[in-house]
Amino acid sequence: MSRSLKLITILVVTVLLLDRLLPRQEMDAYVHQLTQSTEPLVYSVPLSGGELDTCSLDASELSALWPHAEIVVEKTLLLGRCVSVEPILCVGMVCSPPRSRKIDANALIQKALHVAYGEEYVNIASLSADHPGYSPQVRRWPIIREPLVPERYSVRLPEQLVIFDKDANFITTRKCGSVDGYCQTVKRIRIEGK
What we know:
CATH 2.40.50; 6-stranded antiparallel beta sheet; 4-stranded antiparallel beta sheet; elongated
């Protein structure tokens, strides 16, 4: 084997090893196309203006997904290879992959109400009365997560997201429809007598 071929082989093996060992990026996405179990999953890349990407998975992983499902795609940082895909399940007020850390959604929602509205709304029922069609959600934030960024969560309120760290400390807010405000506004309808 020539010296240059040995160097190239060592370089390729090193890159592949680093790609496997480095922490991974996660992104929340949607299944765009799911056909046969032998074909790759096609998903919408967040914040790309409609760009699509693919991920080849085992048939067992694909069987847990459905068209237009919300998913978490895990990719390697160095080569951007898709490693795994998990569905995002909404149970009660929490939307997350099945293996994610358990959080106290009620405590986060109460803190979010206080941050956003002060004493105007004391609970979800009073907020929902003024915003018909609103239901709270707690999710990991942002939708593209880098491995060295601390874990964060967002609480979706009718007009904004309220962001907390993993210990439920308030960080910031994002108005729905703004950059990083991945939510739709639920309009306020003033109830007579209020």
